[in-house]
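[audit] Reproducing an earlier prediction to check determinism. Same input, same settings, fresh worker. If the tokens differ from the archived copy the diff job will pick it up downstream; this log only records the rerun itself.
[audit] input (339 residues):
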Amino acid sequence: MRRIKSSLAVGLSVEFVDRELALKRVEEWAERGTRLVQVVYGPEGCGKSTWLKQSAELLKDLGFYVIYVNPLQREYAAYVDVKDVVRRLAEAAAERSGVAEVKLADLAVQLATFLIKKKRRKIAILADDVFQAIGVDKAASYVKWMLSVIEHPPGEYERIVAIATTSEGATRRVIGRHTWAIQYPMWNMGREGFHQLFEQIPSAGLSEEEAWGWTGGNPRMLGELHAAGWNVEEATRQIVEMKRLAAFATSLTAEEEEWLEEALEDPDALFTRERLPLLERLVDLNLVIDTLPERDARFWIDAPPPEKSGELGIGRHVAWQTPLHREAVRRSLRRVATK
């Protein structure tokens, strides 16, 4: 299988490493097909997109006709022998109007149906972060549409693999109301995988141990540190601005500030009935992941995180997406307190 390369930061491409358990899961799906849509969620930048692109390569090698789309990035891949499929994806990606993202998302399902009509027997639909493109309110209907290809195809097929990824916490709640999908979490890279990734950086400004401590194994955050000249202060400031955390911190009541201070030390402190509204706000801001399943590999798309880690901000039920996200909230709270 060809190992893809991806951009970790401007001018820095790295080869796909790790995620062997996640690729093994794709092989298992390929052997029997997916009865329901497989929705993979996890921290922003944990590597879901890179894994899904590598999965496209794997499925191609296993004889599948593969359609991969990432509407937000206007990226696509079509491992098919039908020229019209490639043409339509290319035209949608080149659209200059604001509907290009929605067109790409729709085409993933439409063209899978088209391939079944063309008597292609093994089909893979890989929809990467489509829910951000079409809107969280349409997430459930999109998953139902993907499922309809499996349950009500326009012709006979041998196997279908249908996978969608998301970083949106709100999406999980919407999709979870129905029985159209199985949701699996993916966590940040483990130490060995992170080591393999870190070794590909020619001249890092932090030690591997320091980089691990700030990113928690999150590849995107490693790239952000690289882009910030390995300045943790700058990388944290960017999260504060991107998430509008100054406004968020200002909106908190005194009691909520206390709860959040507790959560900086132990995120499970938010996992109580009266604190759930604050927890949901943090989930919607993509600062934490909630309702983590037990640390059994059967319930995860790859190796699960530790049961608890004070260093990385991981609790039994709730975890900060990365230590940098936790630090951004900490600094925002301090800034409000000094005013």
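[audit] rerun output stored. Observation attached for the diff report: The longest strand covers residues 159-166.
[audit] end
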